[in-house]
Design a protein that fits this description.
The structure is a single chain. By secondary structure, the protein is α+β, with helices and mostly antiparallel strands. The chain has a single domain (4-108), classed as Arc Repressor Mutant, subunit A (Orthogonal Bundle), CATH 1.10.10. The protein is 55% helix and 15% strand. It has four helices and three strands; from the N terminus they run H-E-H-H-E-E-H. The chain has helices spanning 11-21, 28-38, 47-59, 83-108; strands spanning 26-27, 63-69, 75-81. Helix 1 (11-21) packs across helix 4. The relative contact order is 0.17.
C-alpha cells in the first residue's frame, strides 16, 4: 500500500490520531515517517495526502498545531491531539475493531 488512495476512507485520519496519541507533538514529516516505520513501509504518504488530512483534523478540533523548530532547525508546524481528538480516537478504534472483525467473519465463511 502507498498513499491515501490505497487506504479505506477515514483510515488515514485514524492512523494520524493514533500516532499522535502515542507520541508528543509531531510535525507532519515526523508523522509520515512514523507511519511508514510502524507499518514496515506499507504506508508511504505524500504531502498531497498527509497535509489535507492534518488540516481537516485540525478544523474538526481533533488536533491542534503550533509553530516550532524541527530537529534540523527548520520552522515546522507541530501537531498534537486534543481532548476531543482522544475521544474521537476511542470511537474510531471501537468502530475499526468491529469492522475488522466483520470483514474477518466474511473472509472465513465458505
Amino acid at each position: 500500500m502507498s498513499d491515501k488512495s490505497d487506504l479505506l476512507q477515514g483510515t488515514l485520519d485514524l492512523l494520524i490520531l493514533r500516532t499522535l496519541a502515542a507520541n508528543d507533538a509531531m510535525h507532519g514529516w515526523g508523522i509520515a515517517q512514523r507511519l511508514q516505520t510502524v507499518s514496515r513501509d506499507a504506508f508511504v504518504l505524500n504531502q498531497g495526502s498527509l497535509y489535507p488530512a492534518l488540516h481537516r483534523l485540525e478544523a474538526q478540533g481533533w488536533i491542534e498545531a503550533e509553530w516550532g523548530e524541527s530537529e534540523n532547525n527548520r520552522r515546522a508546524k507541530f501537531y498534537k491531539l486534543t481532548r476531543a481528538g482522544r475521544k474521537q480516537l476511542a470511537e474510531e478504534l471501537e468502530y475499526w475493531e468491529r469492522f475488522a472483525s466483520a470483514v474477518g467473519l466474511v473472509l472465513k465463511s465458505s
